[in-house]
Amino acid sequence: MGSFPKRGEPVITGINRVGLWSLYIKEVRRFLKVQTQTIWAPAVTTLLFLVIFTVALGREGREVLGVNFATFVAPGLIVMGMMQNAFANSSFSLLAGKIQGTIIDLLMPPLSTGELMTGIVAAAVTRAIAVGGAVALAMLFYPGVNLSMAHPWAVAWFGLMGATMLALMGLLASIWAEKFDHNAAVSNFLIAPLSLLSGTFYVIDNLAPAFQAISRANPFFYVISGFRFGFLGESDIGDTNAALFQSAVGLAVFNLLLAFVVYRILASGWKIRS
Hints:
It is built from ten helices and two strands; from the N terminus they run H-H-E-E-H-H-H-H-H-H-H-H. The protein has helices at about 15-30, 35-55, 70-100, 105, 115-140, 150-175, 180-195, 210-215, 220-230, 240-270, and strands at about 65, 65-70.
């Protein structure tokens, strides 16, 4: 006859796969229930960016990096939409729980800190991929846009790194924030400027040296330029494959460091456990 384990002795050892999968599915279903707002609305908004900037800056056959302006700007807009929506998704879960008093539903299940973080981040990356696909689908019908991929590995890698980076930042923001205004402030005054000033609509060679240096200190720049390289085979990161490889590895290292910081803060219970 079996006996109950001693008090404090874990029953689930290793990874709680069922719990992790359940959390992931819960988070995915949450944004799919309102997919008009969470997936298709961002696609329409991003397409409006494309229309406005191609009309304003892409007239008279303007070319950038050897392609027409619409084809140049399209990859940057796709990955920008992916990153912003990854942030929006991961920054909602814990914050909504704190405000509504339902955060206990995330803290009480037998999930480790790593499993809780992984489930929320994975769902945010899933939403980013869905938004990226919706934006790309919409852009296929826009005149003058060519989305053929020169290097599919770069599209996949830089898109994944960008979505993961913003998902982690969103989770960190949701831990810190105490109301939706705090979360909106991070999005409006940090995420949006870093996205728009990262070379989405221009190459940084056109900037003054001081502003080029500032752009190269922005991790969003490497995500957008690397993602664009996957489509065009050209980027303003550097002229050699070594520069692209360094950017790819650098983003991975940055995400690992960011994940470690988020993990430690989440494990500490700061602003979550009272």
